[in-house]
Amino acid sequence: MTATTMPWQELAHQLADQIAAEGALRSPAWRDAVEATPRHVFVPRFYVQRQDGQWTETSVDDDGWLAAVYSNEPLITDLATTANGHRVTVSSSTKPGLMVRMLEALDVDDKDKVLEIGTGTGYNVALMSHRLGADRVYSVDISRALVDTARKRLAELGLRPTLAAGHGVEGLPEHGPYDRIIATCSLPAVPWAWAEQLREGGLVLVDIKPSTHAGNLVLLTRHADRLEGRFLPRWAGFMAMRDADDAPEVTSIAVDLNAGRRSVTHLEPTPWSSLVPWFLVQALMPDEVVFGYHGATDQGPEWAVFSTPDGSWAAVKTQLGENGKREVRQGGPISLWDELERTHQTWDNLGRPNWDRLGLTVTSDGLHRVWLDEPSGKVSWTLPSR
Q1: Looking at the structure, do residues 210 and 262 belong to the same domain, yes or no?
Q2: Element (H, E) at 383
């Protein structure tokens, strides 16, 4: 039995039901696309990381493979080895529910032409091709191998969209203008080249993240002089865009905990515990903030550590002390944790606004201004140029 003749239709129908039940799948056209698109063609194998850090592969010959492929879960589909021997993820099949939520947010018309940044497995290209017709779908990825493989898989289904290998920040200007642009990778900033390839009134949906976990999906409208729009209400995250077709290096954090200034905090020490203030504090950071752990205890890592390229760093104990607070140590030119404390307090004073109260304006000079409630409002933050 070949991959394309497997009894997958009922599993695809169940997947559509799951996505609809979580509120992401609303329109009949996208439901039809999910039910008609064989995800297993695009995920013949995937990888799972064990507790010891090693990766195991599951493929078409393994029990449970087909059911896992049609689960509403993301699947790691490609690994690469760094120069120092680490195996890192370089491609995945996004959680179908998230992908559909983004496609619904794009609000496409039958005649829209769409550019996707990040071809990956090709599954999302297939969904869009079913909905719009393959001649209206364009996609670019940094990996020529991924693009070539996706092209073959799509051809198995009789789909021939335009795929290209290249750097996603450049888009595909030779095929523009587009009505919609969707990015399935995260970026620290929106490339203005995308705005130049988008018709006025068109939409771009992108995951903006100046640092790990620091940001969210934002839906921007093309105006004559700017891109502008709001963040989607639910947080989501994607792998960062790669600048080259190789394995991204794993950044190590080396700090001297004995040299740091000491204080205490009541805040949780991980970025995902306070996603909105963690994003807003990026306006005060000199560059990307790298997050990791240091030391070990019976309960897990001892310290959560943050650092920036200028030598600033902060380390926060993961466990509460006897006083009900966590120890903090920080050093370098900028007191990273102090800045987060102040930003968190500002967020508190504003009523703890969620993502749906935040918006973004991007202009041709590279300025990225985050605003609260309205673009003309008095409260805003300017993200650093990256």
Answers
A1: no
A2: strand 380-383
Domain containing residue 39: CATH number: 3.40.50.150
- Residue 106 main-chain phi, psi, to 5 deg: -65, -25
- From residue 327, alpha-carbon distances to 161, 278, 302, 303 in Å are 54, 19, 11, 9
Q: Give the three-class secondary structure for 271.
A: helix
76 and 223 in a single domain? The answer is yes
Residue 236 in any domain: the answer is no
Given a contact cutoff of 8 angstroms between Cβ atoms, the answer to whether 208 and 215 are in contact is yes
For residues 41 and 130, state if they share a domain. Answer: yes
Whether 165 shows a pLDDT value over 90: the answer reads: yes
Sign of CA dihedral 158, 161, 166, 169: negative
Do 261 and 177 lie in one domain? The reply is no
Q: What is the pLDDT of residues 189-247, one digit of tens each?
A: 999 999 999 999 999 999 999 999 999 999 999 999 999 999 999 999 898 898 887 76
Please check whether residues 205 and 278 belong to one and the same domain. Answer: no
CATH of the domain at 316: 3.30.310
Judgement on whether residues 166 and 266 belong to the same structural domain of the protein: no
Residue with tokens 């080249």: 193
One of 27, 59, 71, 91 is an active-site residue; which one? 91
- pLDDT per residue as tens digits for the range 119-141: 999 999 999 999 999 999 999 99
Is residue 91 annotated as part of the catalytic site, yes or no? yes
pLDDT in tens, 234-292: 999 898 898 887 767 666 667 888 888 999 999 999 999 999 999 999 999 988 999 98
Claim: this prediction has a pTM higher than 0.90 = yes
Average of pLDDT values for 158-175?
97
Q: Is residue 188 part of a domain?
A: yes
Q: Please say whether the beta carbons of 76 and 48 come within 8 A.
A: yes
Amino acid at 360: L
117 and 261 share one domain:
no
Residue 326, φ and ψ in degrees, nearest 5: -110, 140
- Residue 334 contacts residue 310 (beta carbons within 8 Å): yes
Write out pLDDT tens, residues 306-354: 999 999 999 999 999 988 999 999 999 999 999 999 999 999 999 999 9
Residues 197 and 277 grouped into a single domain:
no
**Higher local confidence (pLDDT), 82 or 65:** 65
Is position 356 within any domain? no
Look up the domain containing 319 and give its range: 257-349
Q: What's the pLDDT score for residue 141? A: 96
* Structure token pair of residue 204: 């771009």
